[in-house]
Amino acid sequence: MAEAASGGNDRAAALEPDREAVLAVNQALYEALENGDLEAVESIWLGPGEADDKGGVVCVHPGWPALVGRAQVTRSYMLIMANTEYIQFFLTDVEADVQGDVALVTCTENILSGGEPEEEGELGPLVGGKVVSTNLFRRTAGGWKLWSHHGSPVLTSGDDEDDEDDDE
Prior knowledge:
Elements: H1 2-34, H2 38-44, E1 58-60, E2 67-68, H3 70-82, E3 86-99, E4 102-114, E5 129-140, E6 143-153, H4 157-167
Parallel strand pairs: 1-6
Antiparallel strand pairs: 1-2, 3-4, 4-5, 5-6
Helix pairs in contact: 1-2
């Protein structure tokens, strides 16, 4: 029994460098977005020839249809960065699980963002919020690359109350 426990600890220790590398790439994604660095964002996603499935990469942002392929994903990030004067991500509850050549990172994105103020000092487009994200990475010859990003808005108590009214 002690050998089995030891084997589990050895496996976890062996995966720690991969876990740290995946977390570093995940953090680099959010830093690139904060800096408005589209080239860095693109370099984090799987590139041509790195994805063996037909669609390549997939990205789902809250309220948007699923985006499939590098062109659609890149356009979405260009749109976000072009319409946001500033953006900051405060990641919490970050967890990473490495399974061979695939790694799953889940986290909560606490987003502070905005565009030009509208009339009467109201905040502009893309005004932050809280999103739970699932980022799926694949190991490539060039390191860990983002394969799929899925963001889901965190419901607030006000959102829950609206749902209850609809049930009546």
